[in-house]
Hints:
Distance between the termini: 19 Å
Order of helices and strands: EHHEE
CATH class of one domain: Alpha Beta
Amino acid sequence: MSTQNKTHPLTTTAFELPGYRVVRSMGVVRGIIVRSRSIIGNIGASIQSLFGGNISLYTSLCERAREDAFRQVLDHASQLGANAVIGLRYDATEIAPGITEVLCYGTAVFVENA
């Protein structure tokens, strides 16, 4: 499973992959990232919030955290010998003010063409 791409063709939030059948399940795989906002980022985001709309500094921080957690899931699945991840989900928890955990998880499986 290559983690060079932002997405992988054999990952899904569903519990089935159309055109494939699950041959073996390797169990839950996860990626966990903990990020904090920098003081500079907070100042920039505060300025953006004055004008309303999308706060792009926070959006890009969140997207990077999700991408890193997703990459960890793919790495974990690959280490187990999986070629797909089904039931993919994300969760986020604020651990402390300004510090957030992003969790990506799913079920690592080995699939074959149906």
